[in-house]
Amino acid sequence: MYWYDGNFIEHETLQISINEPGLLYGATVFTTMRVYEQSLDHPLTHWQAHCDRLCQSIQAFNWQQPDWQRLKQGAELLLTHYPILRIAILPDGRELITGRNLPVDLLARQQQGITAWVAEDNLFRRDLAAHKTGNYLGSYLALQKAHQLSAKEAILLDSNGNWLETSTGNLWGWCNGCWYTPALSVGILPGIIRSQLLTWLDSQNISVQENIWTPDFVRSLEFIAYTNCVVEIVAITKFIKFQCDCNKSVSVTKIKYLKSYFMRRN
């Protein structure tokens, strides 16, 4: 079931024009939202932040704004069936909302960490990196390759080999008593959870910096993790094609600390 252009539809097919820009060029913007306690008003759902993300991209592309009240109506219908909603907006303002369940192994990922593949090939890039557009082919290909190598995530690099983000989220690291995350200026998505954690860490008087993740800097980190709205925060404890001495015991300790951000308001 899904919501499309003001209608709640209970089957798995969608009829669109063969000239639809979203089909031909990936001309959509989208956001993926985890709904807590089946409520758009729950503070961890970040409903307004997701709407703001969509609105900012729509304004940047000079597209038509959707009917925001209708979009919210569709989200409220689907959240009773799914904990994760993907909201996409087409250039003419039509909305498409689909739902899915949480990953079946999410708890294991959060408790044990994951393996990530470092995608060194220039093939794996995201166009218009500051926006979540329907053209996510680079990230999709990187994630599929990671799965082929028995990894759960892929780490995307720039042309100089600096680390940017994962195929689905933002990177975090810890060393010498400070948190680090790649700066927006390097060309990454300004993730909603990334923004919330930066604000929260600052409010707790915890040192946090945005910087450039060169390979040498990455090797200096004691702990690496990634965040997104679905998985919250997950440690990366093993890397394919990259030597890094991340301490697993440090990872367990630090993951519990950042996890407290998600636990404090449930």
From TrEMBL:
<keyword id="KW-0032">Aminotransferase</keyword>
<dbReference type="InterPro" id="IPR001544">
    <property type="entry name" value="Aminotrans_IV"/>
</dbReference>
<keyword id="KW-0808">Transferase</keyword>
<dbReference type="InterPro" id="IPR043132">
    <property type="entry name" value="BCAT-like_C"/>
</dbReference>
<dbReference type="InterPro" id="IPR043131">
    <property type="entry name" value="BCAT-like_N"/>
</dbReference>
<dbReference type="InterPro" id="IPR050571">
    <property type="entry name" value="Class-IV_PLP-Dep_Aminotrnsfr"/>
</dbReference>
<dbReference type="InterPro" id="IPR036038">
    <property type="entry name" value="Aminotransferase-like"/>
</dbReference>
<comment type="similarity">
    <text>Belongs to the class-IV pyridoxal-phosphate-dependent aminotransferase family.</text>
</comment>
<dbReference type="Pfam" id="PF01063">
    <property type="entry name" value="Aminotran_4"/>
</dbReference>
<protein>
    <submittedName>
        <fullName>Aminotransferase class IV</fullName>
    </submittedName>
</protein>
<dbReference type="GO" id="GO:0046394">
    <property type="term" value="P:carboxylic acid biosynthetic process"/>
</dbReference>
<dbReference type="GO" id="GO:0008483">
    <property type="term" value="F:transaminase activity"/>
</dbReference>
<dbReference type="GO" id="GO:0005829">
    <property type="term" value="C:cytosol"/>
</dbReference>
